[in-house]
Amino acid sequence: MAFIGEFNKQFKEGLAQYGFVYNSKYKAHVRMVNGEILQYIMYESEMAYQRGNKAFTIFAGMLSVYCEELTREDLQMFGRRLYDFSYDKKDLRGWEYNDSTMLEMIERSLFRTKEVILPFFDQVTDLNSYIEFKKYYGIDSLDGVHKFRYDSLVFFKADNHDDFMDMFTKEMEEVRENLKK
Predict the structure, then answer these.
(1) Cα Rg of the chain, angstroms
(2) What is the pLDDT along the chain (181 residues), one digit of tens a residue?
(3) What is the spatial distance between Cα 181 and Cα 179, in angstroms, rounded to a whole number?
(4) Exposed, middle or buried: residue 165 (CB in 10 Å: 0-12, 13-18, 19+)?
């Protein structure tokens, strides 16, 4: 049985009760929050350590619909590996499998996705909680506010830009101090 088909089948069935659907454009399992926040879960192939095996990891993240453009590459660029969300770092290397262990590894990855990622996702209910999430797990997608790039328009949509201005001012002060040295 092919990995991609089995992965998508199990994740489609396992995540449907949480509102996720498979999106073929992004090759990811996605759900919308309040029509403004796209949450996604997908896999990425990785290098296997044992000869003859294959490996994958779970990638997850979220972007607002105010992002300048939404492509699969954006999901990959702004997403995080499952272990970035994990306190115990059990899944540091992802899942390595062969033909006889493929189903078991997909099941384990689905279990860990539900256990680790979904609690973070469930905390994001509006644009303000989305911004808080992104400060810890993807500030890079909010970067570029001075050029209205990436996902930075969400600050203005949510009328939540004071923290960013404080952070930006502090960074500029640090740069000035370093230039004096």
Answers:
(1) 18
(2) 699 999 999 999 999 999 999 999 999 999 999 999 999 999 999 999 999 999 999 999 988 887 777 778 878 877 888 877 777 767 667 899 999 999 999 999 999 999 999 999 999 998 888 888 877 765 555 555 555 555 655 655 566 565 666 666 777 788 888 888 7
(3) 5
(4) exposed
